[in-house]
Every structure is written in C-alpha cells, then in structure tokens.
UniProtKB/TrEMBL annotation:
<keyword id="KW-0560">Oxidoreductase</keyword>
<dbReference type="InterPro" id="IPR024084">
    <property type="entry name" value="IsoPropMal-DH-like_dom"/>
</dbReference>
<dbReference type="GO" id="GO:0000287">
    <property type="term" value="F:magnesium ion binding"/>
</dbReference>
<dbReference type="Pfam" id="PF00180">
    <property type="entry name" value="Iso_dh"/>
</dbReference>
<comment type="similarity">
    <text>Belongs to the isocitrate and isopropylmalate dehydrogenases family.</text>
</comment>
<feature type="domain" description="Isopropylmalate dehydrogenase-like">
    <location>
        <begin position="5"/>
        <end position="331"/>
    </location>
</feature>
<dbReference type="GO" id="GO:0051287">
    <property type="term" value="F:NAD binding"/>
</dbReference>
<dbReference type="InterPro" id="IPR019818">
    <property type="entry name" value="IsoCit/isopropylmalate_DH_CS"/>
</dbReference>
<dbReference type="GO" id="GO:0006102">
    <property type="term" value="P:isocitrate metabolic process"/>
</dbReference>
<dbReference type="GO" id="GO:0006099">
    <property type="term" value="P:tricarboxylic acid cycle"/>
</dbReference>
<protein>
    <submittedName>
        <fullName>Isocitrate dehydrogenase</fullName>
        <ecNumber>1.1.1.41</ecNumber>
    </submittedName>
</protein>
<dbReference type="GO" id="GO:0004449">
    <property type="term" value="F:isocitrate dehydrogenase (NAD+) activity"/>
</dbReference>
Length: 337
C-alpha cells in the first residue's frame, strides 16, 4: 500500500493527549499512514518561535492532509489566530462541520444529522480592517464578501450534498439588513442552486435559523452560510447532539485538508488525562474519507459510536469515569472485533 504522509500538529492544552490517542487509533486501522510532526501556537512561542513557524507551514504544504490539535490563541495584541492564519495561507475555503446524533448520548434530540458548510476565509470573521480610534471611542472591522469565493463555497456545499445523497441545502443569510455582503452571498446561492435541480434549495434568515435549529433540528439537512454565522450555528448544532466533545471539523481547499476538533485546548482539564478524544477522532475519520479511505473511516466511526453509545468507558464530560487512554483502548478493542 502506498504511504500517505500526514502532518500532525499536537497543539496546546489537551491537544497532545487527544492527538496521541487519535494517532494510536489510526495506527490500529493500519491504512498506510505515516506522520510528520510540526508545532504551532503556545508550544511554538514557548520555544522562541513564531506562533506558526515557517517550518510548520512548509510541512503542511508538503503533505495532502494535516491533523491538528486545538491551539491556544494567546490573549493580547498582535496575535492573529493560528486557525485563521492556516485557513488563509492554504486557501482552505470551506469549513465542514457535521453534527450527528450518537444513540445513547444524552442530548436534547435524537436522530439529528446536519452538515454545516461554512465559508472559511472571508467576511467579518476574517478580522480584516480592525481599527480602534486613539481615544478608544470608536471601533471598526471590515467585512468583504466576493462573488468568486461565495460561488466556490456554495458549489462545494451543493456538490457535497449530491455526493452524500442529501436532499436539501439551506442558505443562511441576513440579506434583509446586510444587503451588500449577505445580499451578494444570497444572490450567488440562488444562481448556483439552479445548477442542482435534484436538490431542494431553501433560504433562511440567520436569526430565524437559530430558533428553528433549537425548535426543530430535523427539518435541516445541509446548511451553507458565511464565516461568522457558520461559526456560531455549527456550535449550536454541536450542542444539539451532545456538545463540543463530539464535534469534528474539516478545513478544505482545492488540494489540501486540515482536520480538527471544533473545541479548544480546554486549559481547565489539561494534563489531567481525562480529555475526550472523540471529536478529533471523528475529524480523523473525515480525513480518511478525504483520502478515499472510506471503509476505514466508517470502521472508525462505528467503533466510536459503539463505545460512546454504550457509555461504560467514556470520559467525564460524557458522564463517565474513564481516562483518555482507557477510552482509546476500548475504541481500539472495538476496531479489532
Ligand atoms: P474550550 O473548547 O477549550 O473549552 C470549553 C469547555 O469545554 C471547557 O470546560 C473544557 O474543559 C471543555 N472541553 C473542551 N474540549 C473538551 C474535550 N475534548 N474533552 C472534555 N472537555 C472538553 O474553549 P475555551 O476555554 O473558550 O478556549 C480555550 C482555548 O482554546 C483558547 O485559547 C481558545 O482560543 C482556543 N480555541 C482553539 C480552537 C482550535 O484550535 N480549533 C477552537 C476554540 C478555541
């Protein structure tokens, strides 16, 4: 089997623990992956390097995929988020976040299955043009949306819907108020939707969408939206299926993907050996799908669903008493069955 090299960024806080656990599970799948380790975030700063060292960028550039632990964004002026930097540097224009119920996990609803496709490099979330006046009385932040990026992203969402056999794409916007930016995004969505007459096209204003997601999540299938709305709504969706410990994310470009957990570095439980690695392992399953290792991806998802669903060997955030290592051992046992 040809070897595929994966860049591994352990990250900060609980990052190294959940990354080690995920690499153990990938090794147990024995699907021809080899790893190149690179650092970023606080770990890099502590070594006197840049937040995202050039060697790390070069390493990610060389390999088709990267698996990234959560990174602490230092508080203070002059630090741009590592995630935002990586998305822009590698042109990772789509952020894909599935929210799928796991039977047995306590959550508000069962059978939720929503795929959020979020624009990843434009809009107000990109942090461009920030300014605070000298007297501190006025602040500014620019929001730029382009037809080109919107088209690329919305096409990506419709293509994903078609590939995955999904029935409906809901375009979420605020074009009634943000007529220029959100209006342009909606306009592009309407024209792209015409190319996909096998998929239902729906439009929804973001505030209504937030309410509808809470009231009746089963009415949603694929959501496509701009950067900040997608950031917020995908966390809402994660909350619907049991929380951030179960939510993976993929940052995807034309020829590269960086896969991660949606949650952060959890400094409150770092070093205690109790972090839940499920979200990152589900991110690794998305990475396997991206590499066309679909049966391995499915085996991993099934093992995770079984262990998390059974609930005897889960970490404290899911109501259990197991450590990260005990949970991982159990996933590996299930993979071997
Ligand atoms: P967080 O997601 O790190 O933690 C929120 C809460 O969820 C905490 O109580 C934490 O213990 C819990 N939690 C998170 N992941 C968990 C897991 N796998 N298992 C068990 N419990 C888990 O959010 P925060 O505290 O707001 O942020 C901490 C740091 O992470 C900040 O520096 C932030 O910038 C960074 N961050 C990074 C990413 C990323 O790299 N993708 C994403 C979000 C936040």
């Amino acid at each position: 089997m040809a070897e595929t090299r994966v860049t591994i960024i352990p990250g900060d806080g609980i990052g190294p623990d959940i990354v080690d656990a995920t690499v153990r599970v990938l090794d147990a799948l024995d699907c021809g992956l080899a790893y190149d380790y690179a650092i970023a975030g606080q770990t890099a700063l502590d070594k006197g390097l840049d937040l995202v060292p050039q060697e790390t960028l070069d390493m990610i550039g060389k390999n088709p995929v990267a698996l990234k632990g959560p990174i602490t964004t230092p508080v203070g002026k002059g630090f741009r988020s590592v995630n935002v930097t990586l998305r822009k540097y590698f042109d990772l224009f789509a952020n894909v976040r599935p929210a799928l119920s796991i039977p047995g996990v306590r959550s508000r609803y069962d059978n939720v299955d929503i795929l959020t496709v979020r624009e990843n490099i434009e809009g107000i979330y990109s942090g461009e043009g920030q300014m605070v006046s000298e007297d501190g009385e006025r602040a500014e932040l620019r929001s730029v949306i382009t037809r080109k990026e919107s088209r690329r992203l919305i096409r990506f969402a419709y293509e994903a819907a078609r590939r995955l056999g999904r029935k409906k794409v809901t375009v979420v916007h605020k074009a009634n108020i943000m007529k220029s930016t959100s209006g342009l995004f909606l306009d592009v969505a309407r024209s792209v939707a015409k190319e996909y007459d096998d998929i239902e096209h729906e439009e929804m204003i973001v505030d209504n969408c937030a309410m509808q997601l809470v009231m009746n999540p089963h009415r949603f299938d694929v959501i496509v939206t701009t950067n900040l709305f997608g950031d917020i709504l995908s966390d809402l969706c994660a909350g619907l299926v049991g929380g951030l410990g179960l939510a993976p994310g993929a940052n995807v470009g034309e020829d590269k993907g960086i896969f991660e957990a949606v949650h952060g570095s959890a400094p409150d439980i770092a070093g205690k050996g109790v972090a839940n690695p499920t979200a990152l392992m589900l991110g690794a399953a998305m990475m396997l799908d991206y590499l066309d290792l679909n049966s391995e991806a499915e085996r991993l998802r099934n093992a995770l669903r079984t262990v998390v669903g059974e609930g005897d060997k889960v970490t404290p955030d899911l109501g259990g008493r197991s450590s990260t290592t005990e949970f991982t051992d159990e996933v590996i046992r299930k993979l071997a069955q």
